[in-house]
Design goal:
126 residues; alpha+beta; 17% helix; 12% strand; elongated
């Protein structure tokens, strides 16, 4: 089930046309009629996403984020989304989950920090 509100669903039904889908099954829309596709007006084309699941901006892959924010004009294709060997897979923000990063010494990682190495001097006001 998607996370869109009734207002977003209604607006999408009346004024939206599907532009594409990403690998996470989020659906991207643009305004019917194209808005300002070719830059002949000051008004930009409206673009939005209906998320598959929780509405969280970090669930949008980088290329689709660039399209939503008018950094690129063309809708990303499956070929564009293909990962290069040096790229890591897109991962949403994990803060607040069990998979969140916790540095050594974090309360949930044992709570024992390494002792200071003495490689600094505390500041003292004169």
């Amino acid at each position: 089930m998607s996370s869109a509100t009734i207002g977003t669903r209604l607006y999408t039904w009346l004024r939206g046309e599907e532009a594409g889908r990403d690998s996470a099954e989020n659906i991207y829309y643009r305004e019917k009629g194209g808005g300002n596709v070719h830059g002949d007006s000051l008004r930009k084309e409206r673009r939005w996403v209906i998320y598959k699941g929780e509405a969280e901006g970090s669930h949008v892959p980088p290329l689709w984020n660039a399209w939503l924010h008018h950094t690129i004009q063309d809708v990303p294709s499956a070929e564009d989304e293909r990962r290069r060997p040096w790229q890591k897979a897109h991962k949403p923000n994990m803060t607040g989950t069990a998979e969140a990063y916790r540095p050594p010494g974090h309360t949930l990682e044992g709570g024992q920090r390494d002792k200071g190495t003495g490689d600094y001097q505390a500041w003292r006001p004169e």
